Amino acid sequence: MNTEKDVEKELKRWLLGAERVVIIGVGNPILMDDSVGIKVVQDLKGKVPEKVLLVECETTPENYLQEIADFKPSHVLLIDAAMLNLKPGGIALLKPEDLDASHVFSTHFLPIKLFCEYIAKIFHADVKLLLIQPKQIDFGEELSSELLSSKERVVKILLSALLAKGSH
């Protein structure tokens, strides 16, 4: 698994040639740490360049396919909680083909890997997943302290990567 610095470098490299970026926050808003993807997207609102579309999908990203298609993305980043065998709050940047069953405890109706493969094929977009190791998936709307800290770091990393080119 890559370190946080590796993730930041890889995200900046990956976004370097991005013309239009969709950032999708996935998760269940009432299952504590599973909501981290949604909360990252909420924190990015109003802070990203116009070439970035932010989408809060919750557990049904497939319901947003038309909105994503209309934006014509070159790059799609899906942010979600996933079992990564890391310490709580640990992050990883993966390609959809790197996902395996051990990364998923699914609160989603359509498997994430299938959703990502569909987007890559239909929209000809470069797709990556930014996954965050949850601590607690109990009922509740608050993130654990580890995930709250991780969410803030991920927001900073994404803003740094998206604004690196200075294009607004």
Model description:
The structure is a single chain. The protein is an alpha/beta fold and 168 residues long. The chain has one domain (4-163): Rossmann fold, CATH 3.40.50. It contains 5 helices and 5 strands. It has helices spanning 4-15, 36-44, 65-71, 112-123, 145-163; strands spanning 21-26, 52-58, 75-81, 91-94, 126-132. It has a 5-stranded mixed beta sheet, sandwiched between helices. Strand 1, helix 2 and strand 2 (52-58) form a beta-alpha-beta unit. Helix 2 (36-44) crosses helix 5 (145-163). The longest helix has 19 residues, at 145-163. It is globular and about 35 Å long. The relative contact order is 0.25.
SSE topology sketch:
Blueprint: H1 4-15, E1 21-26, H2 36-44, E2 52-58, H3 65-71, E3 75-81, E4 91-94, H4 112-123, E5 126-132, H5 145-163
Parallel strand pairs: 1-2, 1-3, 3-5
Antiparallel strand pairs: 4-5
Helix pairs in contact: 1-5, 2-5
Structural class: alpha/beta
User: What is the CATH class?
Assistant: Alpha Beta
Stretches with pLDDT under 50, minimum 5 residues: none
CATH superfamily: HybD-like
Question: Between the first and last Cα atoms, what is the distance in angstroms?
Answer: 32 Å
How much is the average pLDDT? 86
Describe the structure using short key phrases.
168 residues; alpha/beta; Rossmann fold; 5 helices; 5 strands; 35% helix
In short:
This protein has 168 residues and is of the alpha/beta class. The protein is built from 5 helices and 5 strands; from the N terminus they run αβαβαββαβα. It has a 5-stranded mixed β-sheet with strand order 2-1-3-5-4, sandwiched between helices.
